[in-house]
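Researcher: Let's run the pair from yesterday's discussion. Sequence first, then tokens, for each.
Model: Starting with the first of the pair.
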Amino acid sequence: MTDTAWYGVTPEPVANKVARHVAEGAPASKTVLIDCFAGVGGNTIAFARSGRWTRIYAIEKDEDAILCGKHNARLYGVDSLISWFHGDCFDIIKNELKPLDQYSVLFASPPWGGPGYSTDPIFNLATMQPYCLDGILDSFRQFTQGIALFLPRTSDLKQLANASHSLEKVKAIHYCMEGASKAICVYFGLFESS
């Protein structure tokens, strides 16, 4: 694991639960999962292990993280289900994966701006760095309406509600371990209740 991955990787029990919710909530016509900020593969591997997706695409800017992710996927026996892309997720979705838009859902655990996010009583998603909530959603909605965002547990729910389209369903779930919330995952658009 890389140094930053130790505090950035989703704990395995949480990743497995998120993967189950994404798999159960996505329409059957969606058979491709794209993990936009894959890191060392914690969530990506959980998606692959769910058995739900015909293909998983993992996108990551950090080449060392990709090497760790590929190694981790081999350890879990799911490396043949995952295609890795090195680069900017917004460019890759737009330029390389666009033909898959009708079959895909996007999952993203974007960078939250480092460990300092945990000190904010309410995390301001408009100032999240290096990508703000509106920038992420504007770009992703050009590709698909099925979007799941994994965000800090203190994320501003009003901002998330305001970011939804007028008739769009939005579901927010806190994921906990040992009685403490670890993060929130927000499901936009096509996801059904599960």
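Model: Moving on to the second of the pair.
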Amino acid sequence: MSIVRPIFVASIGNPSPTYTNTLHSAGHTVLTLLRTWLLTPPFEKSRPYASGLLSTSPDYTLWQSPSLMNLSGKPVSTAWRTFLSSLSTQGDKSAARLVLVHDNLELPIGKIKVREGKGASTKGHNGLKSVLGALPGMDFTRVGVGIGRCVSRESRDVAAYVMRKMTPDEVEIMADVAGQVSAVVREIRRGVR
């Protein structure tokens, strides 16, 4: 018999509209597209959820962090605690899972990497460092969305690369990525992962 877990899917990136569809905000782009895969309603701003964008259905809760990437920890922590307090039973609270969607510079565009458990390396990702600092020792699932890597390793060049807008082809690739993430989220909800 499989369990059905309450699922809170959060994305970190930089706030819209300025940073909409930048590579560094790939998590937000995928979460926006994921909404149609999981059949959740349109996003609305929610003060209790750290003023992030929220979309809830009986099966899934999707949330976009409103903060700059490197300051994501506190809003993610606040939204997660609010989500837990919305659950009606202790069993639901114990079974609930946080799934964090973020960009991954080490993966080719269109690929995802799922990491589960505590203590996985951030590989220098300041947004992840912020979240892990705000949720110390917490076991949650991270889904890295590949954005590719620029040729240069110079910090100025890397920053320019991740802050650029996605091309139309890259946005289309992110739609396919949302389908991959949807499959992962559904497995987590059913207790398969």
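Researcher: Give me one sentence on the second I can quote.
Model: The mean pLDDT is 93.
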